[in-house]
Amino acid sequence: MEENGLEPNAEAAPETWLRRASLDLTGLPPTPGELDQFLRQQGRLGEEALELAVDRMLASPAFGERWAGDWLDLARYADSKGLGRDGRRTIWKYRNWVIDAFNADLPFDEFTVKQLAGDLLPDATMEDLIATAFHRNTQSNDEGGTDDEQFRVEAVIDRVNTTWQIWQGITFGCAQCHKHPYDPFRMEDYYRAMAFLNNTADSDSGSDEPLLEAPLNEADYARARELDRRISTLREKLWRPADKVRREVGVWRNLAPLKAGTKYGSPIVVERGESMDEFVLPKEVKQKTLIVLEAPVPVGLSRITALRITAKPRDVKRALADSEWGFILTRMKAEILPPGNGGETVTIPLTRAYADEPEPLYDPAESLKNGNFGFAAYTRINHPREAVFLPEKPFPVAPGSTLRVSMDHSVFLLASFTMAIRRGSVAVSDDERWTALTRDREREKWRAELEAALRERAEISSVSVPVMRERPDWLRRPTHVFARGDYLAKEERVAPAVPEFPGGTGGVCNGGRQGDGRRATRLDLARWLVSPVNPLTARVTVNRYWERMFGRGIVVTLDDFGAAGGRPSHPELLDFLAARFQEELGWSMKGLLRELALSATYRQSAATAAEKRAVDPGNTWLARGTRRRLAAEMVRDQSLATAGLLSRKLHGPPVRPPIPEGVWLPYSDDPWETNTGGDRFRRSIYTAVKRSIPYPTFVTFDGTTRDMCVARRPVSNTPLQALTLLNDTVFAECASGLARRVEDAGTTVEERIAFGYRLLTSRAIDEGRLADLLELHRKALRRFKDAKPGGMPEKSPELSALNQIAEVLLNMDEALTR
């Protein structure tokens, strides 16, 4: 300031500061009661009154709702999938988690780790798993004919770009296709970072798997999570001994010579090998493909205790890098044909099934039922997959018998892709250990416990939430550098690692391995982002909070701290705040915001002279307070609050307030059912977000469509904003509510108008403004009194005139600016 001939402004009036802080910290204006209490305390306690007011705001549930909204812009949160049909996505439990995290003042380092890798934490809680929905906010495309792998890869790329933009403030995405033109990042750095995020179980599927059954009642979280752990432990105990036997080579006898046929027209061939025969579907696969295999029972085999299905990609070597469409074995049947075609065909009663992973997305035992799911590689296959099916007891076979295996595939995705096994083989076993697995009393006890736990878990009312889940190491996807960023043009294979800049590897993630030799994971990446060796996360974060409180970041380019971004206007201040946030405040978001709200810089008056504006038009040197228009959600929430309509209910599924007629017509299969009662007036953070048709009022006031991570919203000033405030159903209802509220606030028109003005601005009305509004009221009252029968509104002339006053109050610059 001194270098530019500036001096700090005087402190703003107490009521001005209170409204500013209340809107910034809670997204709502102070109530008349809060304002009166503060002014009384301020006169008696001075500085302490400001501290008490800030502490009250930080403790309010409204704090979490206000700051969660900003985070959801970064997290690209939406209640729809985006792209194509943009169908509904049930992910609102994540939104609730963010609100709770802010209200609980979850330290930012924990806030980071839980969202990026909560599922990998030891003893992860239900909340930790819900937090990982952060990276399930990526768009998916369930439009017919699209390539699932293309959009899965695009989702992973979005996760990389979003992670680096939020926590590092770096345009890392530039390095997807080439060396970064401004910052020291190579393409290899980009794809090493991508390797951390490329091994999750999700795909571009319409079902949004994997899903977490999150209890509707948060009081059930602990019990549900304990049941989930018990279920997982029991499944592991049942699976591991079977898997150990499955992996023994000497247990199996391959079927040969193999005969193969299909129904519904898919061509099939048999490839003879030295150790086994494999069936192959060499061309396009028809819908509802049924594969029928026949082969003589191996010589010397007098009983069958297990049957193994091996499913592979058509091109096993290539699929490791370029996955193929997967499969779902919906129904499987095994039969014995007696020797010489004499006698009846006998079905082997298969009752148990084990896949090659303990908790697959789909239970292979479902292949033994008349359902639509079962043993699967969903939706793509990189590695060969195996499942074992067991009869209850050894099934005797006569010498010279033939085994027939029928495998039905009735699932097809996106109206185009049949989920069928393209290459595979069948083997049988007579090992007695398989029978022991079905008869072991201890295992039957575990199985009974598992069924009881599953029944108890099903009794907890829950909602399915898409979350992150890591694939097991033996099914890990490899990650390659994409030539020119094209996922079809794969070059060298890379392991997970962080760039040497910023912060260096610091022994955190190096060459895909940790110092203890284990493979680096998303958890290592998350911890590196908030580790002492990383210099950017704290700076980027405090700069973002500074921008929210002061209207301009210390680094004005919130999403670019690189060489092409803006230089910090106050580098020492940025360093100080970052170090204090990370070390002294322990990453406390509330602690940082408390200091900003109580600072002398924040408390300055926004009034300024022409000379000051000429020297510092953008207020870079902070010689005055800042004025700016309220964010889209605050415009609506303030109107609801001052009208006495706002519901303070926390959490819950998205709501659908009124929208203009005709906006929703293209989506007849997903009608916009306008809420009634209190849900009609919920805070804006709970409004349903459909990416292809965002809520019109929010778009008008520069809200985001949530297609991508947005660090800072643009600000516009258009006639549409005034038209919305004067005509939209929501604001018309708010004007009516405000009119009724001011009518009850006094006996004279002057008292009523003064009360309404104070509601919207937190200060007393001046004589000139009061005179203008009184004149407007007088003209409106005369017009309504003189109205002809049938031309009068339902309200009384007095209330109708106050309604016009309310419309003006809600539209004032003083009301829409903080």
Walk me through the structure.
With 818 residues, the chain is α+β, with helices and mostly antiparallel strands. 38% of the residues lie in helices and 13% in strands. The protein has 26 helices and 22 strands. The strands form 7 sheets. Strands 2, 4, 5, 8, 12, 14 and 19 form a 7-stranded antiparallel beta sheet that branches. Helix 6 packs antiparallel against helix 14 and helix 8 (148-168) crosses helix 9 (187-197). The longest helix is centred in the first third of the chain and has 26 residues, at 221-246. The model has no long low-confidence stretch (mean pLDDT 94).
- Give the overall shape: elongated
Oligomer state of the chains in this structure: single chain
Total E-strand runs = 22
As a whole number of angstroms, the C-alpha radius of gyration is 32 Å
Tell me the helix content: 25-40%
Biggest sheet character: 7 strands, antiparallel
Q: Overall mean pLDDT score?
A: 94
Residue runs with pLDDT of under 50 for 5 or more positions: none
Residues in β-strands, percent: 5-15%
Alpha plus pi helix count: 26
* N→C terminal distance: 24 Å
Report the structural category: alpha+beta
